[in-house]
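S1.2 Input.
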Amino acid sequence: MKNKTYSDAIREALWEEMERDENVYLIGEDIGLGGGAFYITKGFQERFGDLRVVDTPLSEAGFTGSAIGSSLAGLRPVVEFQFADFVTESFKMIVDFAAGNFFRKMGEVPIVFRLPAGALTSAGPFHSQNPEIWFFGTPGIKIVAPSNSYDAKGLMKSAIRDNNPVIFIEYKKFYNYPISDLPTPLRIEIPEEDYEVPIGKARILVEGEDLSLITFGTTVLQALQAAKQISQEGASVEVIDLRTIIPFDKETIINSVKKTGKILFLHEARKQGGISGELSSLITEEAFEYLDAPPVRIGAINTPVPLSPPLEKAYLPNTQDILIALRDLLEY
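S1.3 Output.
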C-alpha cells in the first residue's frame, strides 16, 4: 500500500492497462513526444510505440471519430483532450456516434474520453469548464469524476474495461495536490495489486446524522472542511462523494436523506443548469416525505469563468458559502 498523487495514479492505471491488454491504445494531441498537456503520458511512446500512443493533428473531431471507428473494430482507445473545454469540437462525434452506435446495433463502443476539467488559477474561460452537464442527458454515455488518487486509478481501470463510452473527468487542481495537504478521507492508500472501483457507486466519506452533503470533484475538499467545522459546532454532516455522475448512485443518496431529512448539493460547475437540479428533483419525487427542509444547491455563479484570480475566487463556491447553507438548513 502506498500514497500517490492524482496524476501518478492515472498514469499508473493507463500504463498497467496497456501492459495488460494490447487492444488498449492512447490517442490525442502531443501525448507521445510531448507527454500530454500535463505530462501524464510522458515516456509512454518510448515503451509502447507510436502505433499505440498516437500523436494527432489539431483536430479533435477528426481524432475522436477515428478512435470511435477503431473501437467498433475491436480496439479500446483512450482519447485525451488537452482541456475539457475542447471536447465541444467533438460533441457530435461523442453524442451521436459513440453514444448512439450501440442502439443502432452497430456494436459495443469501448472508448474512454479523458477530460482535464475545472478551474485552475488564471486559466480563464477557455480552459476551466466543467463538462458533465453537456453529456448528462445523453443515453449511452457514462460519466465518472474521481476526487482522489485511489478512485482515479480504480475508475480509470473500470472505464477502460467497460464496453460503453466513458467520459472520464480529471480535475487539474488535484493532479499534483500535495498528499499531506489532503483531508484524511481522501488520503486513501493504493494497493500494489490490481483493483477496480465500480462505476455507479458513491462513497460515503463521512458518516452523519443531521444533514446530507452530496458532492463530487474539487468541491469534495470544501465539503470536508465545512463538515469538520460544523462538527465542532455540535452537528453531524454526512458527506457523500458521488464519484460517478452517470449512472449516479440513487440508492446511497436516497438512503442518506431518509436518515438525515436534510440535503445540500454542491458542485464546482455553475448552479444554473448543473446536475444538482436533476438530483434535487429526484429527491422531491422519490423521498419527499422524508424531507424536513427543502433541498439546497450550491454551485458557481452564472458567468463565464473569470481570468482574474480574485474574480475567479469569487466565482467559485467556497467553504464559507457552504457553512452558511449548512447552518441555515440545520436551523430550518
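S1.4 Remarks. The radius of gyration is 20 Å.
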